[in-house]
């Protein structure tokens, strides 16, 4: 189980860039095709931009053609939480960081094997830690 990181809205505003704050704390989204991780294939781990929680291994990333980086599964079952999202006239499953509750994107049941899932994430909600470098959680 992941230790929770809970900060006030003011603390989040100080810690995050305006774009990170909009996505992670206000459930915003990047424009399709604009994210810095869309075409990357560098080995490593994608971590939450808000707290450093490991989220996805680069080896589970695939090109979905949707305009956002997509993954077949999180790094561990308890790395993310999933919540029903009924905004924008749709029923979707929102994906949040299990440690800081930051909005990452959505998961859809139309991905490739082995899971059949497509974790469609916002690049701004993540940072990439190259393979071989230590993963470090943000301290409170």
Automatic annotation (TrEMBL):
It catalyses: L-methionyl-[protein] + [thioredoxin]-disulfide + H2O = L-methionyl-(R)-S-oxide-[protein] + [thioredoxin]-dithiol. Belongs to the MsrB Met sulfoxide reductase family. This is Peptide methionine sulfoxide reductase MsrB. Its cofactor is Zn(2+). Its EC number is 1.8.4.12. It comes from the Bacteria. It is an enzyme of class 1 (oxidoreductase). The gene is msrB. It comes from Myxococcus xanthus (strain DK1622). Keywords: Metal-binding, Oxidoreductase, Zinc. GO terms for cellular component: cytoplasm. PANTHER family: METHIONINE SULFOXIDE REDUCTASE, METHIONINE-R-SULFOXIDE REDUCTASE B1.
